Amino acid sequence: MLKTQIEELKKRKNAVILAHYYAPAETQAVADFVGDSFYLAKIAKESLADVIVFCGVQFMGESAKILCPQKKVLMPDLTADCAMAHMVEEGLIERMRQEYEDLAVVCYINSTAALKCKSDVCVTSSNAVRIVSSLPNKNIFFIPDKNLGSFVKAQVKDKNIILNDGCCPVHVRMQAQDVKAELDAHPGALVLSHPECESGVLELSHFIGSTADIIAYAKECGAEEFIICTEDGVEFKLLADNPEKRFYFPNPRPCCADMKLNTLQAVLDVLLQEDKEVFIDEKVRERALLPLERMLELG
Ligand code: 13P
Ligand code: SF4
Known about the structure:
By secondary structure, the chain is α/β, with parallel strands linked by helices.
């Protein structure tokens, strides 16, 4: 059985499996730690394992390697990528820095290592508002996600937050009309959304937060039915925590194909062969570490 083989290899190699909530259910089931981006970055940094198998997308594996260069970071599929992580024109960052003397470039962790190198601080959806509020700078260039950026901008009114034209293709595919159709079908349901959704969806939402925040809210809240506006991998944990509650997703179900590359077979293969390793140029790593460490301090 795949699961037994994975358990044996993990012990033998002192490996730990980290999985994002969007990974396939069977992979979340064998993982040692499952969480949102911020939690997984912290766990990677604190882990005493020799090998980290990161079941996520490239920026997550890269962040783990940047934070723990001495560990072997493997990914079940090195091609699993986040489309949004590339959605910044690098020259634009330089132009913004010339235009605003006190500019802070705030980089959503969903970004390449090269973009982190040009940034002052990283954030995730669970700490972006808190971190941006705590910065001394008045002018903020928020990259790459315009939707998380606008969500922060709406709450941090004393700063000039400049948005960049990037977005998550999976989250922007959900439209307000799709959410309204679910609300019509389930009138008592609460809408819980990720801030990568567009404003039309966020306006219909009863709660907005990271994947971990959505999961915690659904557990703590007394309601029985929820419309979930984020990638459908979160359903595994939502149902595990709340077997008596009901969860609906907008139609078509939001699915990140790259996250779904982290199959159980791919986890076993990479543990066996240790061939899909994340490498980062040392100069890039040293520079990209600065905004990530600042996030861990502030977040
Ligand atoms: P979280 O940090 O909320 O887990 O989000 C990561 C992500 O990729 C959302 O699309
Ligand atoms: Fe990137 Fe969107 Fe997939 Fe999250 S859901 S990893 S933001 S493409």
